[in-house]
Amino acid sequence: MAYQSGEEPIGSGTTTVTVTFAPAFSATPDIVLAIVQNPVDNPALSIQATLTAKSSTDFTVDLDATTDSANYELAWIAGDASLVFQAVTKLGTRVTDLPLGARELRAQDRIVVVQDGVTRQVPFLDFQESFMMKRGTPPTASSDAGVASEMSFDANNAYLYTGSAWLRIPFGGNKTDWTIAASNSTKPAQGGAVALSDLDTDTSVVFDDAFPSSGGSPVVTVSLANTVDVSPSDISAVITAVSLTGFTVEYSTAIDTDNWQLYWQAVQY
Questions:
Q1: Which of 45, 134, 194, 196 is the most buried if burial means most Cβ atoms within 10 Å?
Q2: Chain segment 157-168, per-residue pLDDT in tens
């Protein structure tokens, strides 16, 4: 089974659309994806199409609103599931097969997001809405001014502005972490880095502020980093105790140099 696709005109005052396959499939297609679009009216209604029936010869969708003009059309694709997904996502070599000028994403381009649930749907995301601006100079602190979705990077870190603060994403964890502020999360959150010493076998961290007693113990995640030694030992950390005021970790073997850092963050969900 291959696949077919097309655009079916939708008349004004319509709530149901039936599309006939030409030619008919040899069997009922694995998948039918359909969206309503209106390239003429501005503004146009936002109408969702729900698949209600399919066979080897046709399929039917119900619209969640009545069309208010004859400028709507149903864009659809049906057939073998794997071929349909390849076609709508245009992954891998399909993109490189396009002419050079067509590879650039433009503000009017739309990104396909396939939702494969009980009812398969294909919502479209405007590229302009998902566009992330690149900042030439990386921020120096999480409190620096920025624009929502603005991003930047340097040799060691990537930076993303959430709309209220900059988040730093270390490539190798080789710089002192910025403290995780509650403004960066909808939940109480803290974080930081602890310099370890030679022969340490465990570390106890006390939170700057105790977590609210109305919630449970925070979820703590930790990681070890040593970017100074050429061949650092293989040492892992295990969290052995967590409370509202702090936590304790033990190491698989004793810390063997002063070049280790313990990075941690805690979130109360």
A1: 196
A2: 788 877 778 887
